[in-house]
Design goal:
By secondary structure, this protein is an alpha/beta fold. It has 13 helices and 14 strands. β7, α7 and β8 form a beta-alpha-beta unit. Bound molecules: pyridoxal-5'-phosphate.
Length: 398
């Protein structure tokens, strides 16, 4: 008898879909593989943080921390102030064990069965499961491409997608997979809609530290009318290459935070010794972040133009985050087939654009989590693979 009979009904679609594949599919090391699928930085957590964890444990930080370490929350408030936002550590921060848990908790705080949460298209795939789990419907607003080829928020699409069931709208800024950093004008437009429609705005800002060129990260929570309706989701995963040790937090206005805190997730799930190390990271970790940024920048500057050299691929420079999301529509191959065949033939992993929404079709995502030499090798293999594709059938329409 299939195990579906025991499952909560909202889990059944994902049980049936989870038969394999995906950027995260567990796989052992494979000779010659260049894995640009998952966004797991190739930098190791720095030694001073490892030491801080050990020192904290030796110092007795091994007990319950019900509401999160107060000094850690203080350090988070100090950090977010650099974006011009004053946050009260006691009433406006909850500690989470990563961005994924922040998504789960923020959704759990507000979504009732039958309500809608509006998410951009394309968008990171990790919002889908939690929305479904809480019985909510994920609606989509298509992003549209600007002149530079980057996907941007489209206020007409956003307004058209909001219904009287819409409880919240979620933006990812800087955006994974698109690489967009929202401008002040875009953020003001989104804030105006959120206030007018009286909905919650969830801002996934986990790539805050990774902006390129003239782009700067601006928070939406301090725009007029937004503190009371914004939840900012943050994670140490990318900022400090801390994906395995699980650290994150949510910032919200004090009243909305009462709702977030009411979600019964139990005792604070980020280990106490890591919270202590988090203080160290927020105080002393910025040279390490700058080194990573310099390296990501090199990778972007190498790979974006190199991909665009390949006939049929156009790759815009991202404004933020460390992904490339090139347009492969000229090749006439569905993105899932492109990524599967590229892996099968050339052992290069990427994520198919269709996994980020209907509007992501015609694109693939490369996570720049390998050094330039590996990216160069990956690009040579991608070029070889593209050259082996059959010519695109001519369009039936002139
Ligand atoms: C946009 C976005 N939000 C949330 C997450 C999840 O973060 P974490 O790894 O901290 O759970 C990711 C991870 O890749 C992400 O890209």
């Amino acid at each position: 008898m299939p195990v579906e009979r025991f499952a909560k009904k909202e889990l059944i679609p994902s049980l049936q879909a989870r038969r394999g594949g995906g950027t995260r599919a567990r796989m052992g090391p494979m000779e010659g593989m260049i894995n640009l699928g998952a966004g797991d930085p190739d930098f190791n957590q720095p030694e001073f943080i490892n030491k801080a964890v050990y020192e904290a444990m030796k110092g007795g930080y091994t007990h319950y921390s019900f509401g999160g370490d107060p000094e850690f929350k203080q350090a988070i408030a100090g950090y977010y102030k650099k974006y011009g936002v004053d946050v009260d550590p006691n009433t406006q921060i909850v500690i989470e064990s990563g961005g994924s848990q922040a998504i789960y908790r923020s959704f759990g705080a507000i979504l009732n069965p039958g309500e809608e949460i509006l998410i951009m298209d394309p968008a990171y795939g990790g919002y889908r499961g939690p929305a479904a789990y809480f019985g909510a419907t994920m609606t989509r607003a298509k992003l549209t491409k600007g002149k530079d080829g980057l996907f941007r928020p489209d206020m007409d699409n956003i307004r058209a997608a909001i219904t009287d069931k819409t409880k919240a709208m979620l933006i990812c800024n800087p955006d994974n997979p698109c690489g967009t950093v929202y401008t002040e004008k875009e953020l003001k437009g989104l804030a105006e809609v959120a206030v007018e429609k009286d909905i919650v705005l969830i801002a996934d800002e986990i790539y805050t530290e990774f902006t390129w060129g003239d782009s700067v990260h601006r928070p939406i929570i301090n725009l007029p009318g937004m503190e009371e309706r914004t939840m900012v989701l943050m994670s140490f995963s990318k900022t400090f290459a801390w994906t395995g040790c699980r650290a994150g937090y949510i910032i919200a206005g004090p009243e909305l935070m009462r709702v977030v805190k009411a979600v019964p997730t139990g005792i604070c799930s980020m280990p106490v010794a890591f919270q202590r190390a988090g203080i160290k990271a927020l105080n002393d970790g910025w040279d390490f972040v700058d080194e990573m940024k310099a390296e990501y920048k090199k990778r972007i500057e190498f790979m974006a133009p190199r991909l665009s050299e390949i006939e049929g691929i156009t790759c815009p420079y991202p404004e933020g985050a460390f992904y490339l999301f090139p347009d492969i529509s000229e090749l006439g191959v569905p993105s899932a087939k492109f990524s599967q065949d590229l892996f099968a033939k050339e052992k290069v992993r990427c994520a198919s654009g269709s996994g980020y929404g209907e509007n992501g079709e015609g694109h693939v995502r490369f996570a720049l989590v390998r050094p330039v030499e590996d990216l160069a090798e990956a690009c040579d293999r991608i070029e070889k693979f593209v050259k082996s594709l059959p010519p695109k059938a001519p369009s039936a329409y002139p």
